[in-house]
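seq as requested:
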Amino acid sequence: MHTLIVTAHPHPDALTHTVARHIAEGITSTAAGATVELADLSAEGFDPRFNQDDMQGHQRLAPFPADVLAEQARLDRATALVLVFPVYWWSMPALMKGWIDRVFSNGWAYDDSSGQGVLKKLGHLSIHLVSLGGADERTWQKRGYTDAMKTQIETGIFDYCGAPVLSSTLLLETDSGDVQAHLQTAFALGEYMATASMDANASHIS
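struct tokens:
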């Protein structure tokens, strides 16, 4: 089992990165032989801008750019993908969205060229979402943000590619709440992800 944990936050000491590390610890402490790779898109300098070369690849007129191919290879090595991100304007940061825009490309994540509907190509990749928000639960529910993010991210992105979302967790009041409680939750999430992803992978193989 190999898990890729992707983060998008400009500050290396942010709670987002600490949560990601605790998730990784939960995974490796639970699943014997499990490996985890932490991908910090900000520190790595990933360019989120969908450009002409990306469009050429999308239209199958040229190979995809080297940085996109490298990210796809990193995902090909994984059995599970965990996205850990702060909520910006009720969605993921532009850096992470741009990573998805460029990397989850036509021909790799899905294929719409057959004329018979969309071929979903990521059924082997288990998805876990962990978002950090400053608002409280009352505000979140009052405005319908949970359903909005579920529609946009779980359905709009991962269901389109056939990648099953096994968990989606909101850590709220991250600016004023109990940080240690969030970190305990993160570790427990890692433990759960290890078990869930192993079960999903075994089911996919069988």
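The mean pLDDT is 92.
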